[in-house]
Amino acid sequence: MQQGAAVQNEKSQSARPLFLRLKRSVKFFFRNFSGFLGLFLVIVSVSAALFADYIAPMEAGQASLSARLDPPSWADETGESTFLLGADQLGRDMLSRIIYGAQISIKVGFFGVLIAMILGTIMGLISGYFGKWMDDLIMRLADIQLAFPFILFAIIVMSVLGPGIWKIIIILGITNWVGFARVIRGQVISLKEMEYVQAAHAVGGSHFRIIRKHVLPNVLSSILVLATLYIAEFILLEASLTFLGLGVDPTIPSWGGMLADSRNYITSAWWTATFPGFAIMLTVLGFNLFGDWLRDKLDPNLKV
Q: Considering the entire predicted model, what is its pTM?
């Protein structure tokens, strides 16, 4: 009896740590629910962009006028799968076009942010670290950039050069470096007064080495958070330009172009505008939630 009670007690004690770990995991999940939701939406969007050729049920440009504006349906009379999200005005599968459209949005977001991040990081480091006339010059350039409306600038450039995905990426990159530069500049001004940076100066460290070894690593978290949030903004800007006819070529499936094509069918074929709009909304929401979660985790000032 005593041996059986001892075994039972041992089992209960071994099960208790497992229960506590499970309880902590559940609490962690619900405490960071928005972050997990954002990460899930980001993974779905990026996966759709990377594996569109494998997961899309049809080719993006495959048209069938007999299926023009067919509503969403799980199966036809024969029981075979048809257009799960409906068909557009040319009888093209909406689901396939939304999946292929993710390629454009993710590509514009990532590469546009990469250009803006590189330019903004270099400008912010130079401005904050060296100060004086360099700081004045770069910050005045930033003020001029902010004073000029982006949409107006993009409309002028795209009207002259014509639509194109890489043109959009370059325009987004060179017109949005200011956000990175201003944030990084403020952090570098504080970092260069820290004791370890002053000590590196005292032992004869070069400016390039100090920036690379002591300053840049301490601003990487802010760069990462900004990049995540800017991807969401760039996706919206690309969709806006394409909706106006100044973005991606009309023959390439994109969410903004799908919204533009659906303007005349909103009342008669609601799915042509609803599902591309949901795709934009969920993708932007995912990057924003994930960016906010990263900020909360990486910013020590927000930790209690």
A: 0.83
